[in-house]
């Protein structure tokens, strides 16, 4: 393994890696790093970089990567971005569904949630106010009372 390889890389199994890569490029500014295909044209491995983080992708295929997903993805990825509002708008324009609209949150972030066209969940977030753990806990306590 190359010395500069990430210690942990999430792999998204999608119906079409080519379409997913195009979506992530348009919406998140991703850069494709590599792509390998089977003789049948299935993407068996691709890697993209989003603001320095590496995410790999592969086409769903019964032999290697079955697409056995529950109704909702149990994984929620957070993407820190300068302007979560515009990223959410761009995502929606390219087929994502807004699950929680972007808004200021009690824990000092401006964020919202989307489901991309491939079923994966993303938090789009920007820190708006540095807060102490005690301040965040008080906010959680107040939020849970409502």
General description of the model:
This protein is of the alpha/beta class and 146 residues long. The chain has two domains: 1-68, glyoxalase-related enzyme like fold (2-Layer Sandwich), CATH 3.30.1900; 69-146, Signal recognition particle alu RNA binding heterodimer, srp9/1 (2-Layer Sandwich), CATH 3.30.720. The chain contains three helices and eight strands, in the order βαββββαβββα. The protein has helices at residues 17-28, 84-93, 133-145; strands spanning 11-14, 31-37, 43-50, 53-59, 76-80, 97-104, 109-115, 121-127. α1 (17-28) packs antiparallel against α2 (84-93). The radius of gyration is 17 Å and the shape is elongated. The N and C termini lie far apart (49 Å).
